[in-house]
From TrEMBL:
One of its GO terms (molecular function) is nucleic acid binding. This is Uncharacterized protein. Belongs to the mTERF family. Keywords: Transcription, Transcription regulation, Transcription termination, Transit peptide. It holds the Pfam family mTERF. One of its GO terms (biological process) is DNA-templated transcription termination.
Length: 126
């Protein structure tokens, strides 16, 4: 990576509320995040902040989320997480990080169970 690109990444993360130490931590924990485009970094952070009100510390501790597909992975997981949380259907304290890190097939299996739970709840209360 050129010095110019490195400085652009630092500036980008700084404009999104990250300190220089936070930015360095993200890249130390997940070096492939250096290759993620500025557009995608902004999109991931915006979606996380808007949908589940995360702050920069979530990205610092879970930088792998920057590598996730926003449309195919992150948004569907956030929808299910928000629905389950709002309806108090999480059996134990399931974190957003756990939902985001589930392998795709596990998420699909569990997602189907979650959707069934939501449908059952609708049937019982309506």
């Amino acid at each position: 990576m050129t010095k110019e690109n490195w400085e652009l990444k630092l500036k980008l993360f700084g404009s999104l509320g990250f300190s220089e130490d936070d930015t360095l931590s993200v890249f130390r924990r997940m070096p492939p995040a250096l290759a993620v485009s500025a557009r995608k970094i902004k999109e991931v952070i915006e979606v996380l902040h808007r949908r589940v009100n995360t702050d920069t510390s979530f990205i610092v501790y879970h930088p792998s989320v920057l590598l996730s597909s926003v449309e195919n992975s992150l948004k569907p997981r956030l929808v299910i997480f928000s629905q389950l949380k709002s309806k108090n259907l999480l059996r134990r304290k399931t974190s957003l990080a756990t939902i985001c890190k589930l392998p795709k097939m596990n998420f699909i299996k569990k997602g189907m169970l979650f959707l069934n739970l939501l449908n059952l709840e609708k049937c019982h209360f309506h």
